[in-house]
Amino acid sequence: MSYPPFDLSGRVVLVTGGNAGIGLGFAEGLARAGADICIWGTSEARNAEALEKLSAQGRRVAALRCDVSDKAEVERSFAATLEQFGRVDGCFANAGIMSVQRPFHEMTEADLDRTFGVNLKGAMFTLQCAALHMKQRAEAGDPFGRLVVTSSLSAVSGLARGEDYAATKGAMLSVMRGLCVEYARYGVTANSIVPGWIETAMTGPLLESDKFVKAVTARIPLRRFGKPEDFAGIAVYLMSTASAHHTGDQFTIDGGYQNF
């Protein structure tokens, strides 16, 4: 028998960067638990592929092209999401890019603008829309909301040649702590996901190096890289009523890497 609090029927969840990797892992888990899903992504081809996969779960699904670094585009996309689904109960601000990975002293202003534009400003633009919507719903007598951001282990450990990326991920941990306090009165929780080494398009180039994979795997107690599907369960928990009193936390999903 299923656990009733994990039944997400009637809930609508927005997942940015939901057309691949961890974001798609979130979306698939949420759809299997009964939620309707809207994903945002910049690749029309990946959006279409993800939409086909998610549709197999029998839920209402949609995919919108959105560059989260553009505030006006985020606001238009959020309005379009509300027009199609009527509400947004959960927002997973997952869209992100890796830095160009050049020596710190050689990073250009354009490099910083690119990384901060998507990973930090883009997440904040998205969360602003979601938080306002959830606040307004609560004031109308419907208090419920889930705000979730995808951070990174680089937020709490050193990342050579990727300090700009790590800075964005560390900043979002601070943002979520603030949202946890500010929006609790509206029945909204705010939590962060902190992935370790995961098999995604972002890590794809690194995974081509046998030497790198062997060295990292040796430091992971579970002896494997994570997969997008490893994030389905935590997404369902955070969207469910089972997590109603769980807010302001950081969920590290790294196979034990940080502890070894």
How are the elements arranged and paired?
Elements: E1 12-16, H1 21-32, E2 36-41, H2 44-55, E3 61-65, H3 71-85, E4 90-93, H4 109-139, E5 145-150, H5 163-182, E6 188-195, H6 204-207, H7 210-217, H8 232-239, E7 250-253
Could you provide a short overview of the structure?
The chain is α/β, with parallel strands linked by helices and 260 residues long.
Features:
alpha/beta; globular; Rossmann fold; 260 residues; single chain; 7-stranded parallel sheet; 8 helices
Characterization of the model:
This protein is α/β, with parallel strands linked by helices and 260 residues long. The protein has a single domain (4-254), classed as NAD(P)-binding Rossmann-like Domain (Rossmann fold), CATH 3.40.50. Helices cover 42% and strands 15% of the residues. It is built from 8 helices and 7 strands, in the order βαβαβαβαβαβαααβ. Strands 3-2-1-4-5-6-7 form a 7-stranded parallel β-sheet, with helices on both faces. Strand 5 (145-150), helix 5 and strand 6 form a beta-alpha-beta unit. Helix 1 (21-32) crosses helix 8 (232-239) and helix 4 (109-139) runs parallel beside helix 5 (163-182). The protein is globular.
